[in-house]
Amino acid sequence: MSVWVFIEGTDSGPGESALEVLSKAASHGETVAIYLGEASEQVLAELGRYGASAVYVLTGGGGLPAAAVSITLAGLIEQESPEAVLFAQTYASRDVAGRLAARINRPVISNAVDVAFESGYRVTSELFGGTKLVETSFTAQGPALVLVRPKSFAAEPRGGTVGRVEEHRLPEAGHAGSAQVLGSKVEQSEGPQLSSAKVIISGGRGLGGAEAYSLIEEVAEPLGAATGATRAIVDAGWVPYSKQVGQTGKTVKPEVYIACGVSGAMQHLVGMKDSKRIVAINKDPEAPIFSVADLGIVGDVHNVLPKLAEVLREH
Amino acid sequence: MRIVVCVKQIPDPATPGKLDSETNRLIRPAEQILDDTDRYGIEVGLNLAEQTDGTVCLLSMGPSGTMQGIRQALAMGADQAVMVDDPSLEDSDALTTARVLAAAARRQGFDLVVTGVESTDGYSGVVPQMIAEFLEVPALTFARRVEMDGADLRIERQTASGFDDVRSGTPAVLSVTAGAVEPRYPTFRGIMAAKNKPIETMTAADLGVAQTSGQRVVSVEPAPERQGGEVVEDDGTGHLRIVEFLESAKVI
Ligand SMILES: Cc1cc2nc3c(=O)[nH]c(=O)nc-3n(C[C@H](O)[C@H](O)[C@H](O)COP(=O)(O)OP(=O)(O)OC[C@H]3O[C@@H](n4cnc5c(N)ncnc54)[C@H](O)[C@@H]3O)c2cc1C
After folding, report:
1. CA–CA distance from A37 to each of A8, A69, A162, A173, B246 (Å)?
2. Selected residues 182-201 of chain A with any CB under 8 Å from a CB in chain B
3. Structural domains in chain A?
4. Which residues of chain B does A285 touch, with a Cβ-Cβ cutoff of 8 Å?
5. Is the model's pLDDT at B206 over the cut of 70?
6. What whole-number distance in Å separates Cα of residue B95 and Cα of residue B212?
7. Quick check: B150 contacting A, CB < 8 Å?
8. pLDDT digit string (tens) for A40-55?
């Protein structure tokens, strides 16, 4: 029996969070990567290096593909009975995992941060805003479906190669698959990325307005830092969603995370509390962010950040 | 358009949920509030109903309690509510929840089922997609902008790197992000009117569904807590403390 890892391909291949899950699955045994998208030689080599012994490439399927993907996966599961299907918890994977679970009538466990490959599986997930670790096991027959939070495992190349590649064309999914994608727009910022930067500096509502986000960028520049945000300022339209850190955004683990004008709501902490070191600037000495900060500055971001940028530029 | 908006009553997040230490079950207080993230779905539902001369029916599963949360949602302007309240559904997972909501939506009749992206208390984040699969309709997920395009829906669907421009006919399931709209505040008239709006209560048996449990909680532990460090007042040199800190962390 094997473990399957569903991966939605991007322009740059499988993506970091999928490789993390693939590495974890491969540490257990035979691993099949289910790859939605163009699987070039380069992509196949990368999947092999991170532990896939076989790759099922899902092709075709325009529009929103989750309905068609779940039909194909349900069929393959029926034939091959994998012990688990793991997903990196991204928006695209949530669509596939949810539809698939309903289709094959199996529960799915979300927000997983660890998986123990034993009978029934034991999945650890973070709940109650990350304050509790809940261990759950599967009791029904069929594959364990698990959505894994990014950064839960290290992506480790194992140096393998893919033995078997199968192509599976996605079927017509009828009305369920009929939504059309008329276009896609990229809002991702250039420069250091949240997933890999050593230093991240994030801004929250305490900045006071969209234009003040430039204070964050001016400190980020000399540091080579990636810039992040709370949901409050993403919802307010100050910065694009690709910058959001937290439960419904990105999970990050940099060497240093600098939170500026961020209150430290549970849903934000979930995404950054595993950073190696945390610095917070907030004018409210009672702000919850200080309870996780290694260094807290009680002060006004409009005073501290410009001076910080200036000193760093000269550094 | 007949619009069904899924909403949830949850314990006030300001007073964190307690678990029964024997059974690991969440103890739910009778006073529950409307999950704040549901306001966005309600607002979208009301907007679309206004544009299409349609109706909005709220749909909720869980213990009714004092119905305070549902009344809050009705006060925003929905026409009626359906509550599926059944002790046999207690501790339902996402799959059972979705099966129940799908069955109730089907019974009610719908062109569009609107949900939030995830609830504040459970946040499994897969219920909308499951409902769509049970109803065999498209799942228009993570919508950050919603409008009508003739008889179709047109949405901006949030993606990891930007957004997709998506068009879909109905029936469909639509999940909306918190950034999608600015939810209206209930007016005094709305609050008064909500007291007399019909709330229909039903059980799992009425819908012909039952809880399936395919998972079991083995243990619940407090997550390791991070210790806070030094907190200093900025006396004009706070930025230098940060520089020192970054030096000691060897990132500059
Ligand atoms: C289901 C759900 C999912 C969510 N997902 C996320 C998520 O992924 N990410 C996320 O971030 N949030 C998320 N949230 C929202 C979260 O609960 C908070 O509302 C949000 O994180 C608050 O953002 P903030 O810290 O910018 O704003 P606020 O909470 O308003 O905090 C602003 C802070 O700035 C400080 N301040 C004000 N002026 C100044 C100044 N001049 N100088 C210094 N400090 C100042 C204030 O003291 C305050 O602490 C989610 C919520 C829900 C319900």
Report:
1. 7, 11, 17, 17, 41
2. 182-188, 198-199
3. 3-177 (3.40.50.620), 199-314 (3.40.50.1220)
4. 231, 233
5. yes
6. 8
7. no
8. 999 999 999 999 999 9
Domain spans of chain B, in order of start: 2-207
Our mutation pick for probing the ligand 1 site, out of A89, A128, A283, A291, counting the most ligand atoms within 8 A of Cβ, is: A283
- pTM of structure: 0.95
In this structure, the strands spanning A180-186 and B55-61 are unpaired
Taking an 8 Å cut-off on Cβ atoms, the answer to whether A139 and B216 are in contact is: yes
- For B2-207, CATH number out of 3.40.50.620, 3.30.1050.10, 3.90.79.10, 1.20.120.350 equals 3.40.50.620
Q: Which of B17, B123, B251 sits opposite A199 (nearest CB)?
A: B251
Query: Which atom of ligand 1 has the smallest separation from the CA of B37?
Result: 53
Q: Is B110 an 8 Å CB contact of chain A? A: no
Determine whether the interchain pair B252/A312 forms a contact, defined as Cβ–Cβ distance below 8 Å. yes
Whether chain A has a CB inside 8 Å of the CB on B175: the answer is no
- Is the pLDDT at A138 greater than 80? The verdict is yes
pLDDT digits (tens, 9 = 90+) for B98-129: 999 999 999 999 999 999 999 998 999 999 99
Contact present, A248 and B120 (Cβ < 8 Å): no
Tell me, what's the pLDDT at B12?
87
The predicted-structure confidence for B220-245, as pLDDT tens digits, reads as follows 999 988 899 999 999 999 999 999 99
Residue from B115, B124, B144, B233 to probe the interface with A (highest A Cβ count within 10 Å): B124
Within 8 A of A127 by CB-CB distance, chain B residues are 122
Average pLDDT of the residues in B184-194: 96
pLDDT digits (tens, 9 = 90+) for B25-50: 777 777 899 999 999 999 999 999 99
**Mutational pocket test of ligand 1: of B35, B38, B120, the residue with most ligand atoms within 8 Å of the beta carbon:** B120
Tell me the pairing of strands B139-149 and B172-176. Answer: parallel
DSSP symbols for chain A? --EEEEEE-BTTBS-HHHHHHHHHHHTTS-EEEEEES---HHHHHHHHHTT-SEEEEEE---SSTHHHHHHHHHHHHHHH--SEEEEE--HHHHHHHHHHHHHHT--EEEEEEEEE-STT-EEEEEETTTTEEEEEEE-SSS-EEEEEPTTSS----------EEEEEEPPP-GGGG--EEEEEEE---SSS-TTT-SEEEEE-GGG-SGGGHHHHHHHHHHHT-EEEE-HHHHHTTSS-GGGBBSTTSB----SEEEEES----HHHHHHHTTSSEEEEEES-TT-GGGGT-SEEEES-HHHHHHHHHHHHHH-
Predicted confidence band of residue B14 (pLDDT cuts 50, 70, 90) = confident
Q: Is A71 on the interface with B (CB under 8 A)?
A: no
| ipTM of this complex prediction, to 2 decimal places | 0.95
